[in-house]
């Protein structure tokens, strides 16, 4: 399996009035071709920032203070403006969370879909237009030649998200980043969009990074899962292992607090406590205040991320203690 | 591994003060405003001459040892007159805003709190007042009420309360329905207590900004009245009066125009920078570099 | 195929829905009604205030004095002349009747003669002077927009640089200083010191420059600040991030995606600025001796020429309200999200 993306010790900080926020505190992961990786965590865990920063699409307050991200042989974090622009929308595309605000309200939808093609000079106007109409059709928007000329407000939320997907796919990207694409949608629409994404993933042979707070959605879609907490990776494993043998207490907690169809009678157990104050992280293991298994060492030392098996990593003193 | 940084959550007022301090222009404006207010209060004591004392022999003189800014057509000391103009302007500026606060504050609070047809009624009056160019109304009121210091700032206050009313109403509505008021009510607090402890402290910011802009606005209005001849009656000096007189003599004695214009502009700018700074400081959206 | 600069979807969308005709008309009617009611209220209040003001018969006093020079108060001819004046102006009627008579006349734009010049009807004066004031106001707002908008855009794009700080400081000054003070400074510099432009009058281009600039500086400052804030706000929107994520470069994103949405809210402050301008003409015309409505109003106030005062107030206020209406309609056309209600 060819390696597509290799992120190493990424650190991103934000400077706010209240202090410095370490949104991403040294994470590393790899992504292979054709793989889909799910990054799961609560709000504030750093999951979005960890991926958006790769394309320098974070808030102006944010600073990438360390790390590298090798994509097709080049370090994304060291690219200049032109190179970055070339990759965005063509090699790596993004679908954002809020379809209501992510489309320009006064530009026709079809034009917005064409733009990545035109800007990267991949096709002429007429060709691009045809392609856009095809794309709109493919993502499930009927009467696409007519809808091509509509404005975003003439579409519902789910339809707008489909437009975003069409936009992202316009240049056949190698990597698709989906930043909570269904969070803002109704549950039924959510299912439709997920199904569409599944089909397109196979059809286009793309690698996908899927960011969400909903572990169940991620497990249904992705090959591998990373769970993040307070800017750090706490566990990483193939999806079957995460479901069968989750090791980190946080991952376990996430599994216990989500509903699955057919799990009637199962008790919903929320994770106690709140996400940590971004400027005032706990000492030692950042999760320890909310962990029912916390030991004395958890307060003092941060657990390192270790390989338990070939493709399963965890950062927890519990597990470390148990392995030989 | 944690860096040393500000970890305690910052209170509302402290955050405001930090933001305000960063804005150099606002701080400078604030300092100047304080100086100007002091000058205004002390005017009767520091003015070298009474503002209406003529020295006919020395009329139309330029700046000199005896008369810092020179003299006008009747030989009156321009510096003293300007000092008293500042004083009158401050009286009118602050006085009118006091009226605005009372009328607008009460009407806005009542409208917000009671709701229903009272709210609708008051708001339609506010809408009419907004649609109507207030200066015209000022002129008419002053024509009717007379041209004294008090009647002028009353007139300005009477025409200027609409913005305050809208603001107060908005704040009251927002806070009335907010969670901590619900909680307080659930805990059995009386309406008055709720107003005092919960609603008022949160409203102070925007209200203060509104008033801060209102003061230079009122000064402008009064001077505007004076320029067309409807300001305080001479020999009471007002910047508008002085500028009006100065325009008449500008070819021959430009100092009669320059000094009033510059000092007036300076005063207005100081107040406005301060108000601007206050507004930015209360707005949590301002970033830090 | 690109989005054209004039591609503003609002009204087009509403029109294509076929809904606009009815709703638009209803909206228009409601606004016109509000304006009419406001005007009536204003006129009534003005009339009442005039009635209550001391020195009510000030003008009549002057007439009395004038008559007294040629005759004595006991002379029946004196009484007759006085009575004639009272009748001419309808002052012998009770207040409510006077107001109604005025309103009746106002609807058809006949306001009767003014106190100070019984020979001329007010509506003629207005017809003569309104175009002057309107030209002045219009040129000022155009100047403010043409200079203010680019300034605001520049300040936004070069945020936190010296260009930004200078522009914004200058704009605070522009907002702080009223137009008559600006006028004074302009006159001092360009007329007296440099001698390039005349200090008063309204003939030819040269006389019109200074008044226009004096009037325009305040709105220019407001427009610049507003444009800057609007553009910065727009640039923070999600859809701009999307545009960058698609591979847009700065120039394209700003020009195609950011500018037009930021221009739309600008329309909302044009209304208040026009109001400020109409009022500003009172001062500026006074200082530059321009024979427009503003000067008419100012003179009426000082000489207590009540019919003229009421009428010029009415006309100025009406102009402002109609401007606001036009502005609101324009806003609806430009922004597809606005549903006229």
From TrEMBL, chain B:
<dbReference type="InterPro" id="IPR025966">
    <property type="entry name" value="OppC_N"/>
</dbReference>
<dbReference type="Pfam" id="PF12911">
    <property type="entry name" value="OppC_N"/>
</dbReference>
<comment type="similarity">
    <text>Belongs to the binding-protein-dependent transport system permease family.</text>
</comment>
<feature type="transmembrane region" description="Helical">
    <location>
        <begin position="26"/>
        <end position="47"/>
    </location>
</feature>
<dbReference type="InterPro" id="IPR035906">
    <property type="entry name" value="MetI-like_sf"/>
</dbReference>
<dbReference type="InterPro" id="IPR000515">
    <property type="entry name" value="MetI-like"/>
</dbReference>
<dbReference type="GO" id="GO:0015031">
    <property type="term" value="P:protein transport"/>
</dbReference>
<keyword id="KW-1003">Cell membrane</keyword>
<feature type="transmembrane region" description="Helical">
    <location>
        <begin position="148"/>
        <end position="168"/>
    </location>
</feature>
<feature type="transmembrane region" description="Helical">
    <location>
        <begin position="207"/>
        <end position="232"/>
    </location>
</feature>
<keyword id="KW-0571">Peptide transport</keyword>
<keyword id="KW-0472">Membrane</keyword>
<dbReference type="GO" id="GO:0005886">
    <property type="term" value="C:plasma membrane"/>
</dbReference>
<keyword id="KW-0653">Protein transport</keyword>
<feature type="transmembrane region" description="Helical">
    <location>
        <begin position="86"/>
        <end position="109"/>
    </location>
</feature>
<feature type="transmembrane region" description="Helical">
    <location>
        <begin position="252"/>
        <end position="275"/>
    </location>
</feature>
<feature type="transmembrane region" description="Helical">
    <location>
        <begin position="121"/>
        <end position="142"/>
    </location>
</feature>
<dbReference type="GO" id="GO:0015833">
    <property type="term" value="P:peptide transport"/>
</dbReference>
<dbReference type="GO" id="GO:0022857">
    <property type="term" value="F:transmembrane transporter activity"/>
</dbReference>
<keyword id="KW-0813">Transport</keyword>
<feature type="domain" description="ABC transmembrane type-1">
    <location>
        <begin position="86"/>
        <end position="275"/>
    </location>
</feature>
<keyword id="KW-1133">Transmembrane helix</keyword>
<protein>
    <submittedName>
        <fullName>Oligopeptide ABC transporter, permease protein</fullName>
    </submittedName>
</protein>
<dbReference type="Pfam" id="PF00528">
    <property type="entry name" value="BPD_transp_1"/>
</dbReference>
<dbReference type="InterPro" id="IPR050366">
    <property type="entry name" value="BP-dependent_transpt_permease"/>
</dbReference>
<keyword id="KW-0812">Transmembrane</keyword>
